[in-house]
Amino acid sequence: MKIRAAVLEQFGKPLEVQEVEIAPPREGEVLIRLEACGICHTDLYTASGADPGGYVPCVLGHEGAGVVEEVGEGVTLVAPGDHVVTLFSPQCGRCSHCVSGRTNLCLAVREQQGKGYLPDGTTRLSRQGNPIRHFMGTSTFAECTVMPEIALAKVRADAPLDKICLLACGLTTGLAAAIHRAGVEPGATCAVFGAGLVGLGAVAGCRLQGAGRIIAVDPSPARLEIARRHGATDLLEGGPKVVDRILEMTGGFGADYTFEATGLVSVMGQAVEAARLGWGLCTILGVAGQGEKLEIVPRLLITGRRVCGGSFGGARGPVDVPRFVDLYMEGKLDIDSLVSHHLTLEEVNRGFELMEKQDGVRSVIQF
Q1: What architecture is the 2-168+335-366 domain classified under in CATH?
Q2: Active-site residue set
Q3: What is the mean pLDDT of residues 210-220?
Q4: Running DSSP on this structure, what letter comes out for residue 33?
């Protein structure tokens, strides 16, 4: 079947929207007709050539939502007509990681996914007989995609797909980091560094957990105001003195929970320093540049601070994403204000430009 897709042909060059072929799903796979897709910083990171694991040609995109159109042999988790959110972090339920209950990092398709292939080591995308590799196992900058059934979250059909597609990556990462990875307790003081989609998700997650104080840190006054709308009680413009400000606001001790959502190692260091003496937990969510390292003064750890990471915020997508969709539909989670621009597939490169200008929070492609 022929579809339109945005193909990364060369690193550092604009994506090219062109006609490609997509093959039917094989065993355990599902063909999805995409309705919407968010444009995430990770897509830009790979397109720029900064990602050491990048490859070309490939179809980028991973923050998608759509409708199941066809299923391969043996598929039992979804059926044609089901509404789904795509997951770059699958859950097979059988590998040693899944059965351990200690992590959301499933091992089932990880090796082939990192190489740009589906689980059997091949692609379903091609052009004139030449394969085009998949991105993060999703490739949602396209009218259709083929994915493993274990990498899909089945969601209620009345939820608008152009909004809940944000739960495929950035928003869920922040929400789950506060709810699951950190486990914010009622009445706690939290500090969130970065008010992009991930950081705003963390702010909302802290609010949902009943945090008593939520300090949002970002250099953009406009984004700080959005953070206030999502539950932030205090707003701080980022800078070299921000840790001192947080310590002053917390009696010299620091925040019970801190979250870093910028990808800047300097800010990661601030998030560690701002964690409370004795028990503060810093959760790192941003992706640092290639070769960059986070330096931590050992005294900060000896005196009780802890540091953890959280891919996808620790979320188990097939279970957590439908729950977050329900929160949105019940009016307990505001997603509408996070969608700043609706674009067509042909405008995908404009979406990258808007992101670099920090114009809004998230641009969404509608098909």
Answers
A1: Alpha-Beta Complex (3.90)
A2: 40-42, 62-63, 92, 95, 98, 106, 110, 169, 362
A3: 97
A4: E
